[in-house]
Design goal:
The structure holds two protein chains of two kinds. Chain A is an alpha/beta fold. Chain A is built from eight helices and ten strands. In chain A, helix 3 (106-115) packs across helix 4 (132-143). The longest helix of chain A is centred in the C-terminal third of the chain and has 16 residues, at 162-177. Chain B has one domain (1-446). Classes of the chains: A alpha/beta, B mainly alpha. Chains A and B meet through helix 2 and helix 4 of A and helix 1, helix 5 and helix 6 of B.
Chain lengths: 230, 446
């Protein structure tokens, strides 16, 4: 379960004023916000890289503080530039290293890669030899490998090919079925309506509107978009 | 740690461009060691010719006056370790002439083959890791942490401190291992080529290797720090080159200019020679005046008088001149000592100083050489005086009985070696800590 209590942030034009919300186990919650950069900032706060101006974040009973400790949550950021992950090692070696040094379970990684139809020939390649889509598969498999009850995602599927997006959705549903609480930061209302259980809209620093995705499907999405995300 | 060691080994040695660079360093070093070995062998051959020539030269003299005037040459022989540092010495191939003149001459010969030996530009074993190794380490330090996005990704699995420390240690472990094995292999290879090193020379080489590895670690950590300071921007390579240029060329050049400026406070060697010449001429003048006053002195008495004046000269004016020369050397020694302490302040400047001394043709090698010349000349003049006035023009006997005309310069460790090493380690640790501190600020912006 992911809990935000009176979370306040300030970063340039973007701010949040005392936002509180709760993502339950086995739920996909989409927090929609107009500006992509603001989502990046919020993701950094949620993953502990930046301190909030006020309020608290909990992953289950574990309070997130800006310190070097591992949280019971997986964080999946969007990949802007694949070369940011060019370690000069082969992908297979990178996965080996993360399984040994980062305590990831190899079977979890391989399981995810299988769901993504990953071709194992790519394990012998380096990041620079992979297409961005294939690297995203590896990244996703590694991010989802820890057995943690919470997942926070920053617009990962944005700009990905439809085939990867569909596989990614499948993975999210699997995680949801396994009882994970999933908080997804995005500005894509159509995607949210497709896979979310609940959706929250942030505008002018406030969580203005929360609704079940089922209800959103019945609403005029265009109208919601113009109202909250434009 | 094992996972890090394994992963970093793959990162370093499975990358084609890294391998090409390493092979390039190995091949170039091999070439220069081979060239140093050839020079060493060539020198040994020339040394034999030199000894033979000097022996023959003595037999050509008909009296001791000729011997005293022409004297004999003194050859500067470095330790075999010099083959690793042929271009790092302060002195070039030098020799001196021991005679009864007042001026001490130290000169380089450019005759014949020696004309074609072009020195400088780091063309030796010590120069290759210094120039290319430092650039390579700076580059690898830059690549170590990959990018902020990668660091953040890794931090989902490991705390930053652990990731940073273990990555650095693992990479340095492999790189140090490579450079140590590389240095030792070349050392063994040279021994297999027939060169024998004494125990102290072997120790000297090991300590040189230790400093070289610390220096390369310094560059690695500097590369890592620079990457973090410029926030992993892609324009980084320009910064990398600027930092490298400053460390390798600019700072040592500033140090060299500084020692040159300090040395300008010394009296010129010509001035010292002129003072000594005046003292000698004074004695000559007194002798001439004495003969003018007593023009009827018989020839055999003149010879006795000459001896008397000469002994008097040796006991007074000659000692004065020796004192002048020693004082001058002490002043030069002070400048050298100041330069040594100044070099300690930065690892690259100290590396220059260290490799100069390790070559046996460094500043202290020069002082030892001058000291040897003065002692040898002293002994030669005593020998000359005795033979000139007491041997009654018998066959000229050589002053050189053994290998006195060969100066065996030793490779020596500067007295400040451990301080220099500690200073380099201090810099490296400071870069390591600063990079971590800056990285934390980058990953956890306020």
């Amino acid at each position: 379960m992911i809990t935000l209590k009176n979370l306040s942030l300030e970063h340039g034009d973007f701010y949040l004023s005392a936002v509180s919300l709760q993502v339950r186990s086995g739920e996909i919650y989409f927090l929609l916000n107009r500006q992509s950069l603001s989502n990046d900032f919020l993701f950094n706060v949620l993953s502990g890289f930046r301190a909030p101006a006020g309020g608290e974040i909990f992953y289950d009973d574990c309070r997130q503080v800006q310190a070097e400790r591992l949280l019971p949550a997986a964080f999946i950021d969007k990949i802007v530039d694949v070369t940011d992950f060019e370690t000069e090692a082969r992908i297979g070696d990178w996965i080996d290293f993360l399984c040994r040094g980062g305590d990831l379970r190899r079977e979890n990684v391989l399981q995810t890669l299988m769901v993504l139809n990953f071709n194992e020939i790519n394990l012998r390649k380096k990041v620079r030899d992979l297409t961005p889509e294939i690297f995203r598969q590896v990244y996703l498999a590694l991010c989802l490998a820890p057995d943690v009850p919470n997942v926070v995602i920053n617009d990962f599927s944005k700009g990905t090919e439809k085939s990867l997006e569909m596989k990614f959705n499948k993975l999210l549903w699997q995680k949801k079925a396994a009882g994970r609480a999933i908080l997804y930061l995005s500005n894509d209302i159509i995607y949210a309506a497709e896979i979310a259980d609940r959706v929250g809209f942030i505008k002018n620093g406030h969580l203005l509107f929360e609704a079940d995705a089922v209800d959103i499907k019945d609403m005029d999405i265009k109208d919601l978009y113009y109202k909250f995300l434009n | 740690m094992l996972a890090f060691l394994r992963f970093e080994r793959q990162r370093l040695f499975h990358e084609k461009k890294n391998l090409i660079f390493l092979i390039f360093i190995v091949l170039f070093s091999l070439y220069f060691v081979w060239s140093g070995l050839n020079e060493y062998r060539q020198f040994q051959v020339e040394k034999k010719i030199f000894i033979k020539f000097e022996k023959e030269k003595i037999s050509q003299f008909t009296n001791y006056v000729q011997y005293g005037t022409f004297g004999f040459r003194l050859l500067y022989e470095t330790s075999p370790l010099n083959l690793f540092f042929v271009n790092s010495g302060v002195l070039q191939d030098v020799e001196s002439n021991i005679d009864t003149f007042e001026t001490i001459k130290v000169e380089s010969s450019f005759k014949g083959k020696k004309l074609f030996i072009k020195r400088g530009y780091f063309k030796d074993f010590a120069g290759i890791p210094f120039i290319f190794g430092s650039l390579f380490m700076l580059y690898l330090g830059n690549l170590a942490l990959v990018s902020p996005a990668h660091i953040r990704f890794m931090m989902g699995r490991l705390p930053l401190k652990k990731y940073y420390a273990l990555t650095t240690l693992a990479r340095l472990f492999w790189l140090n291992l490579f450079f140590i094995l590389f240095g030792l292999s070349l050392f063994l290879l040279v021994q297999a080529g027939g060169v024998r090193f004494s125990k102290s020379e072997s120790n000297m080489f090991m300590l040189y290797l230790l400093f070289m590895v610390v220096l390369l670690d310094f560059f690695y950590l500097l590369g890592q720090l620079t990457a973090v300071l410029v926030r992993f921007r892609k324009i980084f390579f320009l910064w990398l080159f600027i930092v490298w240029f400053i460390c390798i060329f600019l700072l040592p050049e500033i140090s060299r200019i500084s020692v040159f400026n300090k040395s300008s406070a010394l009296d010129s060697a010509e001035k010292v020679n002129l003072e000594k010449f005046r003292v000698l001429m004074d004695m000559e003048k007194r002798f001439r005046d004495y003969l003018k006053e007593k023009p009827t002195i018989p020839l055999d008495q003149i010879r006795q008088l000459q001896k008397k004046f000469a002994v008097n000269f040796l006991n007074n004016s000659y000692l004065q001149n020796m004192g002048r020369e020693s004082k001058y050397l002490r002043e030069v020694g002070k400048v050298i000592s100041g330069h040594e302490w100044q070099s300690v302040l930065f690892p690259t400047t100290f590396y220059y100083f260290l490799s100069g001394e390790a070559s046996g043709k460094g500043y202290y090698g020069y002082l030892d050489f001058m000291d040897y010349i003065m002692k040898l000349r002293n002994r030669f003049i005593q020998f000359y005086m005795q033979k000139r006035y007491e041997a009654n023009d018998a066959v000229v006997e050589s002053f050189v009985k053994g290998d006195e005309n060969i100066f065996h310069s030793r490779s020596q460790l500067p007295n400040t070696y451990w301080i220099g090493l500690l200073a380099a380690i201090f810099y490296a640790v400071a870069f390591f800590v600063l990079a971590y501190w800056q990285l934390r600020r980058l990953v956890y912006p306020s």
